[in-house]
Amino acid sequence: MRYLPLTKEERQEMLETIGVDKVDDLFTAIPKEIRLHADLDLPAPLSEAELVRHFSELASKNNDLQSSVSFLGAGSYDHLIPSVIKHLAGRGEFLTAYTPYQPEITQGVLQSIFEYQTLICELTGMEASNASMYDGASALAEAALMACAATRRELVVLPASLHPEWRDVVRLYLESQNVSIAYLPYDEATGLVDPESAEGISWSEAACVVVQQPNFFGLLENIAPFKKVAEEHGALLVMAVDPISLSLLKSPGELGAHIVVGDGQSLGNSMGFGGPSLGFFATTGTKLIRRMPGRVVGETVDTDGTRGFVLTLQTREQHIRREKATSNICSNQALNALMAAIYLSVTGKEGFRDVGYQSLQKANYLKKRLLEIEGLSSRFSAPSFREFVIQGSVDWDEVNIRLAEHGFVGGLPLARFGLPESVLFSVTEARTKEEIDSFVNLLRGLIS
Amino acid sequence: MTTRKLVPLIFERSTPGRRGYRLPDLDVPEVPVTELIPSDFLREEAPALPEVSELEVVRHYTQLSRLNHGVDVGFYPLGSCTMKYNPRVNEDVTSLPGFATIHPYQPEETVQGALELMYNLGQYLAVISGLDATTLQPAAGAHGELTGLMVIKAYHAHRGEGHRNEMIIPDSAHGTNPASCAMVGYKVVEVPSDERGGVDVEALKGLVGPNTAGLMLTNPNTLGLFDENICEIAKLVHDAGGLLYYDGANANAIMGIARPGDMGFDVVHFNLHKTFSTPHGGGGPGAGPIVVCKELAQFLPGPVVEKRDDRYTFVTPENSIGRVRSFYGNFLVYARAYAYIRSHGGKGLKEVSETAVLHANYMMHKLKDVYQLAYDRTCMHEFVLSGNWQKDKYGVRTLDIAKRLLDYGYHAPTVYFPMVVDEAIMIEPTETEPKSTLDEFIEVMRTIAQEAKETPELVTSAPHSTPLKRLDESRAARHPVLRWEKA
Questions:
Q1: pTM of the entire structure?
Q2: Shortest Cα distance from B259 to chain A (angstroms)?
Q3: Domain boundary, last residue among B317, B344, B371
């Protein structure tokens, strides 16, 4: 095998050292009745060249979004990715390291996480961030559980305008610990949630109220009423935010959030059919910080007084606290967090704002152009960021197949999420006016 | 006092007004932002991100990378983490646009290649584990544990036995096992290890009962030992109405040699970043798919991929627990594992495990006269030494030995785990290291044992030649500084 360096002679030498005749003698602890006597029934091994050919064939059965023009979002976004990211994050010293257990020889990963934590704090306005979670959905689930632990309450209030898959993940995590969920409906006309007008919510039992900003429909929720109900009832305010939107929007910290989570894919990570990306998780105040799940990096000094970074506050974690840990998370998404940090560093203060600004402008342009098509209307009236829902009595699945034939990927039909005739479009800074115009013209032709 | 800095923080390199990134000019008609977003929603000041040039970014991260040890840099015998070589071609093939730039909500017709890969990988993992149905959704080993336990819980509830709430776990288990139990509301019942390092079967007999939901076991366990009584253990748990969960962290020892399904396990998770060579990335991303027996397939998180005629399609299992993550898991990670399996085939994977076990036994034999061996038995892919001799005779602790290894250019083994061994040093050489590396490491471990005897202060004050000396971890915890602040 090409990755096994052992020669026949070396194998013999090792066996002699150990004092056995053959490799098989090392497996005598495994009861005979469960030893496997045939080879695993797997396809024959491929050489490197054959593997590359095989993957190219598989890849050719997918319409990639480098050669198509996409208007899909809903949690995975086609933002531009600066070239430097893959070169830097692809360096073997980062790629082939594990969790930095030996800080003296892993300052590269540790410092980059410390910088990542700072960047997330800058975006969210929180005091502390962890080193990353699996994705936005599981980060939100952990935030809800943390709120329960912090308030000793067992009810979580979720908005119905939350991404449906995130809602499913949160529901499963909460049900597993017998935490109840109440849902805040969204207004059919605006698409927004108004927590104050919601009925039947036992607010006094609520550990937290969650709001997603922008919500699943791309709309901008009004955060003030959420803050107000949370404050009134001693619940925590948990915000699930889109990081790109934070280039323009007030930070959750400014709005009074206690815990802020989100998915960081749009920060320099490829879509990759949905993963890997990263979940970010930030909070504020000593008490909450000590309840955070996951790894955290802190600053310290070495015996010479030189600044260095280490994993810290580890008494929260599973390898120390076992069943009393704040979470079971161990491996996280460190490399994706590194990519997010490089992204935020290279785009920088001005460039990052441009990404948000252009996405907003281009999304608004597509929306305006689509509304010129007869039969299409805006599903909701509230202001949106880079996504919006269009309504029209059209077979959107069929339209999407036709669009694919022309090299376009249409929006996400929301029928599967209970909104028939509606479709969610997303536009990033990567789209050009020409692409948007061609798309609108093609779509007009297909549906009229 | 100004502190010396190894590499400045990216924020400390920032110069107001500098840009490292430029988008094309906006080509659509511009509308004032306040016409699109209510003005009281808007930030007054942009987030204080660094203002640096692209070259400064490249230098910054390149300098940081040079402070870091990875498998590419040198030997990394971190026990239970399987730090094997990460084949570079797997990076290339998974970064093809046909994989890296596809969207999870594209119409199925336009992502048949991705679905085909997912379907086949699920099948391969079923073959390797001896079980039936796979979900690729869990993002890491602990996430797989959580998913597996949720499936077990759903199974008992489905049978009207939702009262079963006790999960039996050996005292040598990974910390994630009890932590995952807590996440599903299970009570942890600890079973002690016997004098051979396996599950104490007599003790287990007293622990199983009508409340037993199951038993979680790593086999080979964290001592690197295969539990010889596995068939009896499985029978005890099954007879009590419980299920068996296989923590696949140590699966690098058994591929093609024995299958968890044949051992009696009902649920398995694999750490694809360990056994199947996907890069660990400084702490992730991993992937922790689970494979379950037929009876449990109906409870798996959805969607899973099915093959209908020549077309692949997403379906949700009948009594699915729901979702543990958005979309379909860490696709680009498990695509690398798929590449690894296709590169090896059945024979190749067996040779991987055989070699991993041979390497570990060789090393163990070459070291057991200078370090106490916790359990003197044939080991599997890893073994656990103890620093007790060095501690008792010379006052040199395992931590010191670990730090001294850094001076010689190695990453340290896993230390102080498993907790059932005092001053534990858990070494996993993996199959991809050449014999010369193993011999050099053995020599260094013997040299350090000698140093502990002759010049103990050289070891207790290590490391000496790393970019930083020993770091003050208690200071970091006492006064947490978790982010940079502008001076």
A1: 0.98
A2: 7
A3: B344
